[in-house]
Specification:
The complex is a heterodimer of chains A (about 950) and B (about 500). By secondary structure, chain A is mostly beta strands. Helix content of chain A is about 5%, strand content about 50%. Chain A contains 10 helices and 50 strands. Chain A is globular and about 100 Å long. Chain A starts with 8 loop residues before the first helix and ends with a strand. The termini of chain B are far apart. Chain B is built from 20 helices and 4 strands. Classes of the chains: A mainly beta (about 950), B mainly alpha (about 500). The interface between A and B is large, with 90 and 90 residues.
Amino acid sequence: MVTLKAQPNSLNEVVVTALGIKKREKSLGYASAQLKASDVSNVPQPNVLNALSGRIAGVNVRATGSDPGSSVMVTIRGQSSLTKDNQPLYVIDGVPVAPALQNPTAGIDGKQTIDYGSPIGDLSADDIASITVLKGASAAALYGSRAGSGVILISTKSGAEKKGLGISFNSTLIFDKAYLLPHFQNEYGSGDSPASDNTISTSAWGQRLNAGTKLVQWNSPVDASGNAIATDWVSYPNRVKEFFKTGHTFTNNIAVSKSGQAGDFRISYANMQNKGIVPNTGIKRNNLNFAGNYNITKSIRLSANLAYTNNQSHNRPSAYSESVTSQVYKLTPNININDLRNYWVPGKEGIKQYNPLSSDDNPFLIAYEETNGFNRNRLTGHVQLAIDLMQNLTLTARTGLDYYSTDLNEKRPFSAKRNPTGAYLTENDYFKEQNSDFLLTYKSKTGSQWTYSVSAGGNQMDQKMRSVRNYTGTLTLPGIYNLSNAAAGSMIYAEGYSHKRINSLYGLGEISYKQSVFLNLTARNDWSSTLPPENNSYFYPSASLSIIASDLLGIKWDELSYLKLRGNISQVGSDTDPYQLYNVIPFDTDWGSVKRASLSFDQKNSKLKPEIATSYETGAEVSFFQDRLGASFTWYKTNNKNQIIQVPTTIASGASTKLINAGNIQNSGIELSLNAVPFKGKFTWKTDLNFTRNRNKVISLTPGITNYLLGSTDGSNVQYLIREGTQMGDFYARSWQKVASGPYTGQALLNSSGLLQQSTDFEKTGNYNPDFILGMNNSFSYGPVTLNILVDWRKGGQYYSYVVKSLIDDGFLETTIPGRDAAHGGLSWTDGDGVKRNDGMILPGVIATGDGTYKPNNVIISAADYYDSKYWKYYQNDTFSATYVKLKEVSLTYTLSKNQLRRIPFISNLSFSLIGYNLYTWTAANMGFDPETTMSLSGLRYQGVGHWTLPGTRSYGFKLSCNF
Amino acid sequence: MKANSILYLALAATVFTSCTKDFQKINTNNNSPSTTRPEYHFTEAITQTAYAYQENAFDRRPAALGRYITLVRNNDCETFRWTSVDWNDIYQRAMIIKTMQQEAVTTAQPVYTATGNILLAFNIAYLTDLYGDVPYSQALQSVTTGNIKPAYDKQQDIYMGLLQLLKDANEQLKISGTGIEANADALYAGKALQWRKLANSLRLRMLLRCSKAYAKAFTEMQEIIDNSDLYPIFTANTDNAEVIYQGVKKDDSWPGGAKNMIDADFTKTKASKELVDALIARNDPRLAVWIAPVATTVGSTVDHNQYVGVPPALASPADYNGGETHQSVFSSFFRQDKASGLKASLMIYPEVCFILAEAVQAGKVTVPSKTAASLYHDGIEASMDYYGVKAQAVSQAYYDLPLVKYDGTQKQLIVQKWLAMLFRGSEGWFDFRRTGYPEFVAGPASFQKIFPVRYGWPTSEPNVNNDSYRAAIAVFGPDDINTKMWYLK
């Protein structure tokens, strides 16, 4: 007689899957991963999505900025869509919620960009019970259109977890400090050349500092006869560090729950107060959650969740051009930042700013007066009724809502660079999504060899958005930020509304044999309002198989806990956004009091078809020594076809893009997880390793189009090109001319002035996707003390840094020190104006002699011209490796033992932790940028440009948790 | 519960979810209309054309290549370190005009078809003057025929086509010129006669420009001159094709005003040495209107005048003459968001005078009761009048100065035309390209010794229209800034 081994816990672990259906791990034919509550709340971060980083194979998490309110990009198994944001669908307690990533918006000055965060960042870490990641089309086949890039299921805590009355309280205090900065040079001050006495230049090619010289500077005092007095020409190496403050985040969360015979409930309130590293920035968040289950009768169960969040900030830091970071980084080394703190000209407060260089805004003016504020109120919730119609037949009906309303406002004061007479913007965005669904499930009786369950259901998703925007680029009186203060005729209005609905029907079934072999089948059909009537219905099935080989084959090897094999084939169909079928003719701004109409140059297509993604996946999981050693391996391949893409066309045709179905983008890769408990007992050491490698390939675009320009940056000089046979994420730029043949082949071909010359063709310069991601999580516990360390290693990929190019071109970085004077290797020469100088340099390369041969370059140019020639137009020199290793999370926790707790009344659990995140980053490029947060987010479709973003920040602090 | 109930539930579910009857209503975009009236596109086409053309003339390549301005920072434009330039805005305006003409057919307002053709000809002429061969006959058809890869037309064919277009538009407006909505007409407040004058004056401009390559250019010019009833042209500054600036929002204000240009950009735009020296040599009354005096002459190293222009493409232009305090920027007149004398000009009367003067001087046409000298005088006088210094020019005896007194040379004529064409389109650069006058010399830091003669086609073209792009190169020549176009050969 065969005795079944006791099943290890991991196989029987309950996983929340699509539609909120709970399944046991063993029956899943696809790779899934789950984070426990402690994974998320141990080191609670303001945006809970950061907890996913480095923990789950196949998931690439990127915080787009180092401040708490910024959006987090999550890419699962690579980018597959050319036009969509490639973000997974977020489902909270079974209800899909608003799109997670919002485009950072251009500020009203047209230059600074502001990230108002994404609604998913409204969640409080201490309220989360688990996060399940469904990675491929397989697991997400039941969610339809939006789940093409995976699904992240978030379950919040309910009252059912603990019997009786429970109160829990968590308090966290974290400090944020900017530490990763570019390597600025502090040896030469402001000026256009080493002999220049133009001390208010925007470049730093000027005279040597700290040499005992005195010069007339921007803030020189004036003597009795009105002449400026020369002051010490010294450097202020801490000018950038002194601008950024130590930020802090203080979070408190209290929850009350009770469970009993008739049901359970949980109410929690969380409050977060944050002050950012940029002065005058910060976020305040309040969350109120309610979750309740009530058994009306034994066979009718009612449950409801309601979450209200208010998330607001009076000022979010801006990024990219002319932001606070760019102004602070571009201060020449002779400027003492503390001299800029009073940013108004005395006697002209509110009217004229005080700044040494009239071309840039005083960074303190930007921080204190050029504010970008928002206030978001959000209500998410659902009500569900489950009825046991018969013994094995259950009907579940549910309706869920995600509603939010955001008010934005942006202010610019008088004398701001781009808005000299001020500006003011207000915007109101409303979003509402309602999902109503039902599911009828029949389960066969347990106990026999064959068991099965069958379900049928349907869903209606209705989504509405509205946005109203009013702004003026000219105020009448300074300091009054109210629309009535707009200069006459200067108001610009915009309003938009969109509506979308998808109706669906689906069925699922599971057959299992001996609880060792599981076959899951799903089928779903969607009808979408966004596609034309003849093409608005699309059907997509999936099949997955899970075999517990160790049980099936009766392997009786004590060391082996289980061996599971799994495989999966599935399809996911997808629609598009509203209003993509026909063009409309928008109005332009009024000209005086005359109406003007413009055109849309993006041609719509009334014959669109749905997109289809097909994926294959196979893998195995094995566990030894009662789950003390385990491994999981997955191979996957997904093809996303018929994508609805905006193909660029020549504007000479009258349209700059045309919407077509085209494209076949393939992502294939492997995911590997290892977990081990090398030591178990009084001293326990658990380790988890997960490895992700994704390869993206553009299989085809469409006949006639082999090159697709996804976008370009830096004045069209860096292009993101999609070419058949290559990968998404490639970026191209023109390089310098090189010798084609002969003894000097490959060397730079310079012109007669000794400068690099640009070639006409664009060549591949880099790709922003990593080669692989490796996350390592180690947990050491000894008695009541536990130490958790999470390290995230991202290898490969490149980013082009616009910041490095700009800083080198003006002589701000250490890179530009060599050659500046004789002591640093500069050659002596005489320039075109007849001045004798010591900052000569020669670019390596050859010059054509005119008779077909070449001679090595011997033309001496100034150091400034050398660096300008090398770095300004040749993006290959400004492209760096994006490889980094980050100490992502560390926590040291002391938990009071039962003995110690006996002496404290009421408290059933008390722990105290020292925590930190993003504590240290090692970068291969070593330029002082964090590749994760330096890359810009452009239209959500491509990254890769290192832009002006906040410096890399480390955070550390402590946390107190207790339960009553 | 019985099986029946389950069946009813299933049926209800099917009915409820497969209901798509509301879908069309849900997916109808009510944020904007699907058709609109031609008047709205008319104002858009006029204002966008004029403002873009003027902005180009004031602070972009045309101003640098026409040697009016010298930038002391970010001076790529005049060191010739560029090739490709985008042409998005021109084709966008052309598409708006074409759409307007389709709407005019629907609403039966043919007058907008005719005026639309004049605007279209203006835009496409500018396009081909800048690039040479460009898509034209197959262009703008993405909606009608779906052609998203238009072939490039030869400049000669484009010019002939546009000249005919202007001739026909003039004809149509003569037959029926009523119905132009006065408020919507930002150029001429609804007066068809003025539009005809613009059409014919544009023909004069184009004919002179291509006269070296087009044998019948001067014959057609003569035809226009001889029939002022049939082909009216500009005869006074009141005929100028100009749009005013509202000065309220960024996009309806003068490009040099505070709304559009930050202080640093205005101060880095210095007056060019060529311009200032020419004005000083003639004691030109326009000097004080256009140029600001230097902050101080104390410390000037090479040029001790009250007004100092900066030579082109120096190695360190900011240090010229001892620094920026010894260099002239443009006057506060050009720093306003709006002013009665600041307008976005498509074409002005002085240009017509100089066109006729040059043609008469070359002996190719005759103008009744006018000579080359009198036309030359008219041109200068009209320009003086435009800037409000007409009386001053007379009282200073400007016209009797040796440099100014008519000497029958093309060089002198073009120099005066160049002065009058300050910030008027690309005429300064185009005339230099065509005649070699004024005799500009590339600066020491220039990437090449000769002045560019065209813009390179946009960098996107090889990606989105490769076959046509390659075919165009095979016909036109290499896509660089020195390849001569048809009428320059």
